[in-house]
């Protein structure tokens, strides 16, 4: 990954889906995130899902979701946390 100051107009940030200046971008896998989006905690303990920890994931890592939330059927947003159980 290389640090960039300008976003490619053909790519959205993988952290927030907005097109604007990236913090880091990989041209091999086309993954890019703003500096502000990189700072999300890797694991959280959410009160609505207190039995298990939730881990941050990219939409690309969980293809079985159909890219919609299983609870509200809205398109997935960022950051996105997922329980592995």
From TrEMBL:
<protein>
    <recommendedName>
        <fullName>DC1 domain-containing protein</fullName>
    </recommendedName>
</protein>
<dbReference type="InterPro" id="IPR046349">
    <property type="entry name" value="C1-like_sf"/>
</dbReference>
